[in-house]
Every structure is written in structure tokens, then in C-alpha cells.
Amino acid sequence: MFLDEMRALALDFLQRKIHFGGFQEQANRDPEAWYRNLRDQETAILLRYLLEPPGRIERIYVLKPMEGDAEALSLEAHDLTEEKARRVPFAKPSGSQSRWFGPVVKRSSQKGKGPGPKLKIVESSITGFREKAASGEPWAGYFREIVELLEQRPVLVLPDGTRIEPESRATETGAPALSTAIQIINEKKTVFLIVADHEGRWPGDRKEYTSYLQAKLSERYVTKNAPAEPQKDCSLCAAKDVTVYANGIKGAGINFSNMERTGAFPGVQPSDAWKRFAICSACADLITVYKNHVAKDYEAQVAGEKVLVVPRIDPPHSQRRTFSKRVQAWLALTKEGTKSKEEQLLRILRKHPGLVTLNFLWVKMGQHIEECRGVVSEVPPTRLMELSTRNLEANRWNSPVFPRQQVHDCQFDLSLQFLGSLLKRPGGNVATKVNNSSSLRNQRIALCQALYHKRPMDETAFYQEWHETACWYLLEFLRTDREQNGFSKSRWMSLFLESTEKQAGKGILTFASWMRHTARFLHYLRMEGVFPMINTFYEPKMEDLKPYFTAESGIDCPEKAFAFLLGVLFGYLMRVQGARKVNVAANALTWLRRLSLKGKDLPELYVKIRGKLLEYGSEKDSDLRELIEEIGRLGVRLGDSISLDHVKASYFLLLGQSLNREVLPKKEKKAEETP
Q: What band does 318 get if pLDDT is binned at 50, 70 and 90?
């Protein structure tokens, strides 16, 4: 699950952020020993990265013993600086009505509800403090001190010297000054309210309190079925004779599988989980740091979706930290769509030969990192550099089958964003559910795996997803036709043009543009060894057709050639109908039967097209007659046994339709003049 890499990245992060004592030399020489010292000697510093961050809180209010007045607690306000935030370790209660962990409270104010926390929570929290004070734990003395202050000093003194006496010395909470402070603080925004000890030290200054919080945090790594196991070996850092936690990974916020579910790991019962994958609290804390502070910097866009990138880097440690910062900069560029993102990554890879691999995880990023829906692991830098070279070439490919107008989202790059665009169903909110479907995601991930590792894959699943997308393009055309109720020139032209007048320069995929970008992508997959290469081609008699019958088109047999040429003729018919302002959606397009035609249905389609063209008197042109003769020769040769399924038949029909203006470039004017 790449935990070792996550742990290393978290350790790098802490060393960049934290500087304490005389341990910096040790940090570079022995980062593991540096981390152990940090946990033991500067717990408050580490807690800042294990607990909930302050967020937008800007102010702290401190209750502290009033000098010269044994009955009073003074209230003073401070701005929340970086240094002071370390002294205010806040652990969020498990629920809205739960007790506070200690004397660090979030005081809020909600419109119509007044200030909070409410009296009920104050009462139960003070009761909890008393229980801790009587517990006999190492932090019991600290809590006794806090309870004594709250119980024996009921008077609140404001910053201006105003004294507020409690209405009754026998208050319900036993902490009248605290309850009063919650009520009278004049802040609409949420602030921290803390209780200092007898010497004015804040909670984060007291080792007893930070040790208490550290122990409480370890409880997240324990469940009823998977308790802590003392004197075992950590499966992550290999520490000997330590307490390990089978729920440590999940408790830290990484939940790729349900470790408590019996049968998730055959032969392993939850109570025996520590034997296989339990980790110590030191490692669990590092995984928590990774989840809370590091993972967000390693999000990227790959194949049109957010992914978590986990690099694996060899020592030395100092180089790894430098590399991590540079990779974060590159990932930020992928989210912004910056053109230089690929060059940036290649520079990083050349400067850091210590990088072993990049791993890509399709996960849900939120309060937890969970629901791992796909992984492409162990991608070597050499393959990324090789693929980048291919991308530069592919973006300059020139073929009559390929698009003339480049769409930015369909450009080839290392983040494979074109996969998200080419398989994306059009239709706005209506298509959202299917675009987020697991089957479509699995296909994109499978293509990523094949491209990043240069491995062959079965093309059947891709063509099925392509066919679904093509159906959505057709349905979207028909839907807009119904909404606009009649002939629309711009909509009609989108069947043949890569962009209409309104879409020019906007990088919008029309039906025709999408087909030609798909043809280029299929050639790309063949060149990368993902799909089989084409070594045999159909050779037409018509000279003007020969540039279209090459490896780029994928037309390697007479059956595909017949479907392609029929698609050209079908596109020409729709041009004729459009020139006459005939609603093609209600006429010629219905013959495609929502892209369910198979090879055996193509002769019948040919007859229908010829009949309409004769009806319109459109076969007077010599080039068109030559195309019809080419189709006729193929038809005689093939007869009725055209063995194409509905997917391949649809693909080559639509490819021919999208290219009909290029195959017959001079026919539009004559078609428009046809009476």
C-alpha cells in the first residue's frame, strides 16, 4: 500500500518544517533518531502536525491566575501566531456533544444560537477533568491543578479590570469563571479559549499534557477486535519489542481496505491482525502527518481524474527532500493545466537519478484517504522520458485522417489528460453519472497502466467504451435537435466540421473532431505497442482515396474499407440534405439505428443512400461516381457476408462521415446548387 514511501515523505516534511535544539545535524545524519528525539523531547511541536490545524482561528483567550487575588482568573487576548499555535494543541472531540480532551476549547458564536460550547458540555467536560485528576496516570497532577484553578477561582477579571462575580458560588459546573468567559467574549468568529496553570504556562508548555494527548491519539489506533499488542515488532519500521496497532493504518486516516472485516485477508482473524500488518505508534503518527499535511501536495490530474502520486526515492535523505519539493511544484502545474508541466517533470527526473518509481493511486481524498479504486505502480522514469519523446512527435503528426485543429485537452502529455476527454460523454449534468462510473474509470486506469508500462492490452473493452461515447454524441445531437425544433446550420455542420463558426478557436470537440482525435489516439496506442500494429492495408483503385488507406486509419481489410467508404458517402448525403435545409436528424441519421448496425446491415444502408442521392439528382459529379464505383467493387467482392460487429461497423462508418469533406472537397458547392 506504499506505506513505506508515505512514511518517508512525512519524515521529510517534518524535517523541513521543524527545527529544535541541537538536533539538526542529527536530522541530516540519522533522520530516524531525530524523529524519536522529537517525539520524546518536543511532543508539543509534533502534536501540532498530528492534531487538527487551527484553520481560520485568529485569536486566543487565556484564563490564568490573577496575581494578588486568590479568587480570580484573569482573561487576556492574544493574536494566534505560528509560535503560539504550538502552545495550544487542540484535539477535536469525537462528536458535537462529546467532552473536551483538556483545557483547550473552541469558543464559537452562531447566529440565533448564542455562544458555545453549551453548559451541558462544560459540565461533562469538567467532570472528565476530575476523573483524570483521580486516575493515577502520569498526567493526573496536571488535571488536579486545572480543576483546582477552575473550582477555587470563580471570579473573572476582564482585560480592562472589570470583575465579574458568579451569581452563586455553588455553581453547577464547578468552573464559573470559564462558563462566564464563554458567555461574555465579544467575538463573532471562532476563537480558542484555554486555561493556563498556576505559573501561567499554557497547555502546550506542559509535558504532562502533551504526553496525555499523545496517549489519547494512540487510542485511534485501537479497536475492540484489534487491540494494542505489546512487545511485538513493527511491520513498517521493524522496531523491536514495541506496542503495535493492527488498526494503526486505518486510525491514521488511510483506509484502502476494511481490515476489520473477517475474510478480507484469508486466514487472518481481526484479533490476529497484528501478526501481518500492525505498526507502532511512531509509524502511525507519521502516516497521520502524511495524510494531514503531505498528501495534498501530491495530488495530480491523470487521465482526467484526481490521483495521489506516491514517489519512491532512494537515499541519500537530503536529495530526497529536494526532489520532493520539486515534484510538488510539478504536480501543482498538472492541476493548473500549465503547458510547461511536462518539461518541468523531465528536468526533475534528469536532476534526480535517485528516483526509482512513481506510483499513481485513484483514491478518495477527504477527511480520510480511502476507497482505492485503481493503482498504476512502479512507473520508471526512463519510461516517462521515452513517452514524453513520443508525445512530442505525436502532437506533430500529420495525416489526412487526423485532426487539423488541435484541441488542447486532447494533446498527448505525460499526465494522459486526453483519456479523460476522448472517453467523456457529452451532455452536461445528464452525463455526469456515467462519466463517473467505475467501468469507465477502470478503462482509463487500464490504458494508463498499459501506456506507462508499454504493455499490450485487449482492445475490446476500449472499443466498447468508445461505442458508448459515440452513442452519447449521437443522442446529444438528437436531443438538441428536439429542443431547437428544426434545422440548425451550426448543429448540422458539426457532423462534418472540426469546429463551427461559433466554436472556432474555443477547443470544443464536435462530433467530427472527436472522431478524428480518436483515430489519432488509436494510432498512438498502436505505435506504443498497446494495441496490435497494422501491417496489411486495403488498397483502393481511386487515386484520391489512397492517402486515407494507411496505418493511421486502421483500415486493414476490405470489410473495414467498405464501412469507411460507405461512411464517406453517407456524410455526403447528409451534406446534400443539410444544403436543402432538410432536418438530417429526422431523416438520414435515423438509418444508423442508434449505432446498432452490423456489417451484414451495410449493403441495405448503401441501397438507401444511393436511392436518396438519385432522388436528389446528386450523382452527376465524376469524383462522386468514382467513389460509388469503388464501393460497388467492394460490395460485389464481399457480398452479404461483411463480418463486422456493431462496434467496428459504427467506428468506420463515423470515421468516413467525419472525413467526407476531405475525401470529396469540391462537392459542397455543387450539392448546394442541386435543385
A: low
Cell output for 151: 473550582
The candidate with the shortest Cα–Cα distance to 603, out of 541, 649, 648, is 649
Label residues 326-360 b or e (16+ Cβ within 10 Å = b): bbbebbebbeeeeeebbebbbebbeebeebebbbb
> Cα separation of 488 and 494, whole Å?
10
Q: Determine the pLDDT at residue 562.
A: 96
Q: Is 11:286 a contact under the CB 8 Å cutoff?
A: yes
Q: Which strands, in side-by-side order, build the sheet including 299-302?
A: 254-255, 369-379, 355-365, 305-313, 299-302
Is cis: bond before 316, omega within 30 of 0?
Answer: yes
Cα–Cα distance measured from residue 408 to residue 412, given in angstroms and rounded to the nearest whole number: 9
CA 64 to chain centre: 46
Cα dihedral value 498, 501, 502, 503, nearest 10: 20
Q: Where are the beta strands (DSSP E) in 197-343?
A: 229-232, 242-245, 254-255, 279-280, 299-302, 305-313
What residue type is assigned to position 467 of the chain? H
Locate 605 and state its grid cell: 444502408
**Closest to 143 (Cα-Cα) out of 76, 216, 79, 71:** 216
3-class SS of residue 290: helix
Of 258, 255, 342, 260, the closest CA to residue 301 belongs to 342
The 279-280 sheet, strands edge to edge: 229-232, 242-245, 279-280
Are 642 and 603 in contact, with CB atoms under 8 Å apart?
yes
CB 499 within 8 A of CB 508: yes
Q: Which three cell numbers stand for residue 167?
A: 451569581
Q: What is the 3-state secondary structure (H, E, C) of 339-397?
A: CCHHHHHHHHHHHCCCEEEEEEEEEEECCCEEEEEEEEEEECHHHHHHHHHHHHHHCCC
- Number of Cβ atoms within 10 Å of the Cβ of 377: 15
Residue 222: closest CA among 270, 176, 265? 270
Residue 429, CA distances (Å) to 433, 436, 510 in order: 8, 11, 18
Question: Could you say which DSSP state residue 380 is in?
Answer: -
- All three cell numbers of 304, joined, read 482526467
**Band of residue 566 on the pLDDT scale cut at 50, 70, 90:** very high
Read off the pLDDT of residues 296-315 as tens digits, 9 standing for 90 and up: 888 888 888 889 988 887 75
pLDDT for the residue 183: 93
> One-letter amino acid identity for 264?
A
Cis peptide before 53 (omega within 30 of 0): no
Q: For residue 642, how far is the Cα from the chain centroid?
A: 44
